[in-house]
Amino acid sequence: MKYSLCIGAYSGKDEVYHLEKIKEHGLHGLEYYAWWDLPDLRRTAKEQERIGVGISTTCTKFISLVDESLRDAYMDGIRQTIEACKILNVRSVISQTGNELAGVPRDVQRRAMVETLKRCAPLFEEAGIVLEVEPLNGLVDHAGHFLQRSDESVDVIDQVGSSNVKLVFDVYHQQITEGNVIRNATGYIDRINHYHIADNPGRKQPGTGELNYVNILRAIKATGFDGFVGLECGYTIDTDEAVRQYKEDILAKVE
Questions:
Q1: Residue 255 confidence (pLDDT) above 90
Q2: Lowest-pLDDT range of 20-24, 60-64, 200-204
Q3: Which residue of 174, 178, 179, 205 has the lowest C-beta tally within 10 Å?
């Protein structure tokens, strides 16, 4: 498996600083979400080549997937994001779904989402990039977010029917939403492109809460998964020290 850090791990530092730190720690990628905030995409691409580590994941410009009236704007954002990914050699793009629309039947919103994703799929297939839909918890962090459960998220992906439209499985969110983390994180492996991890409660680095990440990551690895696991969390201690502990206390036992 490959391991990434997320932008913001080093507060106030830019993407180049993060990439240098990722290289220093022997990790494999950076999740940089708002690609449009980068002042010069081609400069970043050159820095990635120099350092030998690059951005592994970004996000699309967010517009609701459940609101059919916003489909054209969402698709325009997708096209812009794909062009940015080509410059940066990014191979996965995360999309949230947006909040549930009041007064609109849930099945109508789900059909709108599936149709939009079906229209996106050929664009990602042609570019060789995976679009990742992300379910989020509504109890603590994202009240009203449309997709929250693994089973419904998988049903949406199956209806889209493209190997370039999958899920990012965030262990922190799914622990809050439904539990059964190892069962769902491994049972839906064919529909998952990469994982996010953080401990619960608190959304801090692994080892600060209730989740047994040695067992969780071992189970994921046993499926043959060789994609990215992103450390999407805050830190209770110095970031460098937290990453060292993560490598020594968790990753060394997984590998």
A1: no
A2: 60-64
A3: 179
